[in-house]
Amino acid sequence: MLSLEQEVGAWDSVLLEPLTEDTFIGNLQQRFKRDHIYTYIGNVLVSVNPYKKLALYSTDLVETYVKRGPFQLPPHIYAIAGSAYRWLNDRNEDQCIIVTGESGAGKTEAARIVLQFLVLVSGDISEVKLMKDRLVQANTLLEAFGNARTMKNDNASRFGKFLDIEFDYKGDPVSGHLTHSPPFQARVTSLSPGDRNFHIFYQLLSGADIHLLKCLKLQRNVEHYTILQTNRNQPTLTDDEDKKLFVYTKSALEILGFNVEDIVDIFQVIAIVLKLGNLQFVPCNNIDGTEGCAISNEYELFEICELLGAEHRWLQRALTSRQIEDGILTDLSAYEASKARDNLCRTLYSRLFTWLINKINEILKVRFNIGPKNVK
Q1: Which of 41, 81, 158, 281 allows an S-S link to 337, with CB 3.0 to 4.6 Å?
Q2: Residue 327: its pLDDT value, please?
Q3: Spatial CB neighbours of 91, under 8 Å, sequence gap ≥ 6
Q4: Helix, strand, or coil here: 42?
């Protein structure tokens, strides 16, 4: 039986006497040691990442919190989500839930729990169920393409997002819209020591079947790809885990309504970025004494061009020279060509991510008339 009397320490920080930084931190620590990771500061919820699984989430608990006010039960993220949902329906007012914190604080997981709560408490007719499935799968897809494992966080979000969900008069979700900041592009070609690149690269290499890998001209070995390497041991994740997550990501694409051609195109862009990162440039001297460069592993360039459907000479020229005036080209040094290669990798990935967001928004568009209520 949930009861505020059973809480460890002060369940609401405003009850602390005296309320100082030391007593506030001490109370959080006392509660954290007993797996009480949620604490109020008035109507604000503080969540401390336990870095382990806790038995704090279930369908029964969702039903309990949706029926009770936020201060009638122990602090919980369900209480915040429940209050927003209740006010949305009872007062017909838009609601906004802001999840903020430093890297590793648990923001991604908290946002996922809020979304799962809203999915569980709303209706279950076929149209609504389809929209709920799509909202959940959109989140799965964005984590694959926008999140990465770091030394501090297994699932660090590398972009900002704002999810607007529209509900009808019955409290059922009928549409959604994502606004995002672009993913941290530098990560595509420049990893901090010990970090991994975006999840999707590893998922594709581990999870794609032999036929798909062959079509994408990829090898399964992660160590073959320059943009996936770092100068320190990366956070551990087994091939089996990446393989399982690839199944979820591919399933998310299918549930969201991406057709076979779209899915293949998406994976082709990922393959192109991986292979572009492998291109190596060696310096060479031109007849006029200026410095130029050449691609030392042209077999990679030929395969990239096959995936792009581009002319080999065109891409080679684009990577090793630049136009200074109409019809006048100047050669790039090996260093400059490497920078151009990295910029192309980042741009391709960023454009792919934006395209995915736009496709998701098209899929989540409202399909029938609703009232003005929404929760964000």
Answers
A1: 281
A2: 72
A3: none
A4: coil
Beta pairing partners, 179: 162
Confidence label for 155 from pLDDT (cuts 50, 70 and 90):
confident
CA distance 357 to 346: 17
Contact by Cβ (8 Å): 220, 213:
yes
DSSP state of 95: B
* Structure confidence at residue 369 as a pLDDT band (50, 70, 90): low
- Amino acid letter, residue 151: M
pTM surpassing 0.85?
yes
Q: Is 108 labeled as ligand-binding?
A: yes
Amino acid at site 342: D
26 marked among binding-site residues: no
Local confidence band at 301 (pLDDT 50, 70, 90 cut-offs)? very high
What's the average model confidence in pLDDT over 337-364? 95
Copy the structure tokens of residue 343: 């910029």
What is the per-residue burial (b if ≥16 Cβ within 10 Å, else e) of 93-123? ebbebebeeeeebbbbebbbbbbbbbbbbbe
Paired residues of 41 in beta bridges: 44
Binding residue per annotation — 106? yes
Residue 102 annotated as binding site = yes
Contact (CB, 8 A) for 62 and 78? yes
86, two tokens: 């209740």
Residue count of the chain: 376
Instruction: Say if residue 62 is exposed, middle or buried (CB neighbours under 10 Å; 0-12, 13-18, 19+).
Output: buried
- Per-residue CA distances from 82 to 70, 116, 175, 318, 346 (Å): 8, 12, 19, 54, 40
**CA 282/CA 294 separation, integer angstroms:** 5
pLDDT at 40 over 80: yes
Q: Is 7 annotated as a binding residue?
A: no
Q: What is the mean pLDDT of residues 114-131?
A: 89
pLDDT mean over 282-299: 87
103 is in an annotated binding site: yes
Residue 357 near residue 161 (C-beta atoms within 8 A): no
